[in-house]
Every structure is written in structure tokens, then in C-alpha cells.
Write a structure and sequence with these properties.
Layout (H helix, E strand, L loop, with lengths): L6 H11 L2 H4 L3 H15 L6 H18 L15
């Protein structure tokens, strides 16, 4: 099934809302991303893949801006 380019935005949101990183964002961080995304997403054009990749790049930049690290980021550490 081919997805239309307009479906990329909805699919992207569904995927990140189920992601490991999204679960570790604060409510304020989630709100900030949710507020920012539509403003920039409106300027993204191209195919489904191009749009989806652009949304992922924006999320990656957002995570980098709040200090994301690939390993152990915001994991709860259980005392030994």
C-alpha cells in the first residue's frame, strides 16, 4: 500500500508518541515540540519519504537541543 505524502505527518506523530524518547520527555518538553512542529511542518514539501525524513530530522534536532544522549538518557538508575 502506497502512502500519500499527506499521511507522513500523522504517521510520524503516531511513531514518536510510542517511542522510548517520547516517554522520557517532560510534559513541558512534549508541549514545546507539539507547539513548534506544525509551524515548521507547514513548510515541508516532497514525497512521503522526504517529508517523513524531514520530520524525523526535526525531532532529532529537538532531542539534541535538550541534551539527548543515545545511551542511558534519563533512565532511572536502581541502587545496587
Amino acid at each position: 500500500m502506497n502512502k500519500t505524502k499527506e499521511e507522513a505527518y500523522t504517521h510520524f506523530l503516531n511513531v514518536i508518541h510510542k517511542s522510548w524518547t517520547w516517554a522520557r520527555l517532560t510534559e513541558a518538553e512534549r508541549a514545546a515540540f507539539a507547539e513548534m512542529l506544525p509551524h515548521y511542518a507547514a513548510d515541508i514539501t516532497g514525497s512521503y519519504s522526504q517529508r517523513y525524513n524531514a520530520y524525523n530530522a526535526m525531532y532529532g534536532a529537538f532531542l539534541a537541543g535538550i541534551g539527548y544522549q543515545p545511551l542511558g538518557w534519563r533512565e532511572e538508575v536502581t541502587p545496587a
